[in-house]
Description:
Layout: H1 5-24, H2 32-43, H3 46-59, H4 74-88, H5 92-129, H6 133-161, H7 163-171, H8 175-200, H9 206-218, H10 225-257
Helix pairs in contact: 1-2, 1-6, 2-3, 2-4, 3-4, 3-5, 3-8, 4-5, 5-6, 5-8
Amino acid sequence: MEITLIQGLxxxxxxxxxxxxxxLEVFYWFRPMVVAFFAGIALGDVSLGVACGAVAxxxxxxxxxxxxxxxxxxxxxxxxxxxxxxxxxxxxxxxxGLSLPFALLAQWVGIFFNTAYTGIAHxxxxxxxxxxxxxxxxxxxxxxFVKAGVVALLVFxxxxxxxxxxxxxxxxxxxxLVHGFEVAxxxxxxxxxxxxxxxxxxxxxxxxxxxGFIMATFLDLPNVLPIAVVGIALAYIDYAHNKKADDVLxxxxxxxxxxxxxxx
Length: 264
C-alpha cells in the first residue's frame, strides 16, 4: 500500500515527538512498541502497528548503550518495521529484518549528535559559570529540538519521499531471501530476550523473573495483562520498601552526627 503525504507528515510528527522523549527517556515513547503503535494509528492500521511493535520490541529489548557502544536505533526500527510491512505487504518478522539498515542509519545520526554535543557541553559550562540561565536553557533546548527535527526528516524521507524506490528494491528480492529475512526476524526476539536475561538473572531480580515465569507457564491467563499488573504491583512494593529503608537510614545518620537540639 502507498503512504500518502498526510500519512508521511503524521509519521514524521510521531518520529519528532518520540525523538524528543528519547532525549529525556521519561515516558519511553522512543521504544519500538510505542513508536510502532503510533505509526499504526497514523497509517490507519493499528493491529499491524501492534504486531510490528511487539516483534521489534522483543528484538531490541536487551540492547542497551554501554559506554561507547551504541546499538541500532530502536525508534527507527519500530517505525520502519511498521512502514515496510505496510508498504510491501511483508510479514512483521520479514519487515523487522528489512528495517535493520534504517536502524543502523539512525544509529550513525545519533552518534554524530552525541559527538557534536561535546561542544555544547563546554558552552553549558561557560553559561553555568556565569549563571546565565537563559542562554544555558536555550542551547540545551536547541540541541534537543534539532536532533528531533533531523529524526523527523529522516522518517519522512524513508517513509514517504523514498517509498517507491524502497518498495521496488524490496520487491526485487527473491523468495528465498525474503524468507531468510523472515527467519532472521523470528530469531532476533530470542536474541533480545537472551540479552535481557543477562540483566535479569542476578540476585536482585531473579526472584521476579521466576514469579513471572510461573505465572506465564502454569496459570491459565487470557493474556499477559495480568502479569503486567502484578509486575507493576511488585515494582511499587519494592519502591515503597526501598524508600522506607532510605528514610530510616537518613534518620539514623542524622541522629549519629547530632541535631540542633543538642547544641552541636
